[in-house]
Input
Amino acid sequence: MPRSLELGLNRIFRSRWGVAIVLGVIVLAIVGLARLFSDGDDSRPSLGTASPGPVVSADPKDDDTVLETEPPPSPTTSPGRAKPEAVAYAFASAWADHKNVTPKAWRAQLLPNSTTKLADELDGVDPAGVPAERVIGRPSLVPVSDTVVNAVVTMDTGKLNLRLIAPDGHWRVDGIDWSS
Output
């Protein structure tokens, strides 16, 4: 090999650009060999040739992929027991009644409409931290199943979100969340 060509190749292999060019040539050679030795299976579409996905519309009238067409389940209540709306309203009223009451007395007002789990969570809670003083709206219900309902009760300073459960047809509040 002539001396000038040898010096030129040494400079190329020492520079970053030279290394990048050599790596690019190697990658192209590997891709070319892979195509040459492929099994000829053309059943898989190449990138960009697959059929487009279904058209999704924000308007339910235009979208035929709606999974549920049935109405939401109706909550079931045992005979002689309060409906979930009444339980949510009673609980929210007792929850807001926190002025001039001890933590023990405040918790006792909530117990008739609370699950054991929630009653345990409320043990030791200071009612002075309750951010509302009165209910100003009727509970709105969102049925999840026939034994689970989410209720939103409008209070004077925000919304009390309640999760009610009734595994035995007797509705009780099982979870509380506040949003102002």
Summary: The mean pLDDT is 81.
